[in-house]
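Support case: user asked for a sample of complex input and structure output to validate their parser. Sending the pair below.
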Amino acid sequence: MSGALMDLGWEVRRAGERLVGAPIGRVDETTWEVFSAHLTAVVREAAAAGAPLVIDLSALEYMSSRGLRALTIARREAGEATPITLAAPNERMREIFAISRYDKLFKIVDDVDADA
Amino acid sequence: MRVRFWGTRGSLPVAPTAEVIQAKIAQALVAAGGRSFADAAEADAFARQSLDFATYGAYGGATSCVEIEGAEGTFLICDMGSGLREFGIDSFRRIAGGHPPAYHFFLSHLHWDHIMGFPFFGPAFNPAATIVIHSGHADAETALRRQQEEISFPVPFDWLRAKFEFVVHKPGETFDVGGVAVTLCAQHHSHDSYGYRFEKGGRAAIYSTDSEHKIDNMESEAAFEAFFKDADLVICDTMYSLGDTVSLKQDWGHSSNVVAVDLCHAAHARRLALFHHEPTYTDADIQRMHAETVRYEELVRADRPALEVICAYDGLEVAV
Ligand SMILES: [Zn+2]
Ligand SMILES: [Zn+2]
């Protein structure tokens, strides 16, 4: 759980009122910790700015259950005040959301600019 | 070793109603499409080939009971769910064929669905039988005696004729039973539960049921990865979807198919058996969950060797 931590990229940007966090690569047992740390930070940033948060998944290859559980932790931290939307998942990620039933827990939209 | 599933259902035994059987027959007749068969064997061969498991077969409804065959001179049995009754009957047959009347049980925990078969375990009345009950719980004997108290059952524990021994083990301390090395692992569940690792001749089988992998306790994931390490077969509690385990059914003490796959991947296990099926699931529901799990394994496999995902059913035998 150390050498591979650099494998996950992460970018944060503004999109109008919203804050957008974008993981790049894949989230599995080697990268979930850095993913979770970035998520926590961006949730806090969004909360401080009073901005809704969008997680842009367009550059994410996939995430395993480690990443999905990190999303749940992030949402607990965000609470009602900071809504989290998942945007632009690839086909593989859509299947993973369906199989894990996370499609019933999170709002998932086709692209980042979709009405959040 | 050889693993034999006598009960694979979680929480409560279930049985198909007439309606369920009638629907299977109707589907089979539709699939036959007016063919004629010379005899039942020919019809059976056609059905076996052309129907899916949920139609031709059934996952069964007995609660947790899994036999690990391969020890010298003794039966090894994980849990005493309602599937234990059938195992007890079968063991009489094998004893008549020369197998010693020795039984070693390994209890995951003491919830009702994991001990309810014991009052119906015929060999407990055999004065020649020895029954050793291994557990991580100091109160295993209390639990078994209590369910046979007069208020719950007509035959008290003290009427049983077999020679009993209760042995409490510490997690991580390996012991030997008939040439099989056994190790316990503490699991997160109401009143605690324990997983078991069985090793013989360089092969390893894991029995890990009623185990919740908490969302915010990723440190314990490392302990399970080590416990499952390079296992040939991992039997895992996959009762709920991941979504359910982090929302409505959080803290109900169970795990999901996708977490089981991820743990097995990280541990480089070779084969995963889905287990402790939700009692409200139909055969079609369990079959769908199995297909989804196979697909999930492909989606997150990356460059790892393939993990074979099988779905446990009452009567399944797996060579390890
Ligand atoms: Zn159970
Ligand atoms: Zn239980």
